[in-house]
Fold this sequence. Notes:
Distance between the termini: 26 Å
Number of strands: 4
Number of domains: 2
Strand content: 5-15%
Largest sheet: 4 strands, antiparallel
Shape: elongated
Number of helices: 10
Low-confidence stretches: none
Order of helices and strands: HHEHEHHEHEHHHH
Amino acid sequence: xxxxxxxxxxxxxxxxxxxxxxxxxxxxxxxxxxxxxxxxxxxxxxxxxxxxxxxxxxxxxxxxxxxxxxxxxxxxxxxxxxxxxxxxxxxxxxxxxxxxxxxxxxxxxxxxxxxxxxxxxxxxxxxxxxxxxxxxxxxxxxxxxxxxxxxxxxxxxxxxxxxxxxxxxxxxxxxxxxxxxxxxxxxxxxxxxxxxxxxxxxxxxxxxxxxxxxxxxxxxxxxxxxxxxxxxxxxxxxxxxxxxxxxxxxxxxxxxxxxxxxxxxxxxxxxxxxxxxxxxxxxxxxxxxxxxxxx
Length: 295
């Protein structure tokens, strides 16, 4: 394609945007709102996944040993636990350390050891974490069969429900994102179709005087790309500001929640929306012009 021809296409695209007037504004607004809602829901799903991963990472099995377990066997038990399939980390919590942690929890005003008659009733235990939270029940069952193990606790029932809820949240979130993306394509195509419909007579005249289909398509193609670019830029700017303001408030009231606060991830999403907007605009133009080329 010659540079002069490309310049002509761009001039016609800009002229078409100016001629369409309020239809251009309506198309840009449609693109902006569609992509803003899509980006907002993607951020919600990313944060839900982040919280779910943080909760899952805290899932662990606590292996309680018998009270009379010989201290010299603790190393062997720890090694046996490490060899279980799926185990990522094993940490020994001695009865002395357990009593100290319990005392810190109740505060210095409570002398637990004196209240217990000078005898520490707590057993030694191992805290076991797995590479995948779903492996916790299997590891707990295997650990319970080891010698000197009295009981294994991991929140049986609660862990299974937690994993099921997080799995359904991810599936539901992905499905909603796909539906919103499809709705955005349809809305953008309809908005651009209105601008093309207003110039259907112009397209017909160009066909009758012998213009090729691609000679007619290119200005509309570039026009759709510009509509998508402008709309996506507006959506990305509004999304970034809205999310930054929301995070500033949530950090004060919900500081304990692991939320996506890095600007890099948000800017990557904004860049994705801009690329998506350009693709939606160009695709919508091609779909809309196709019908009016059949003269």
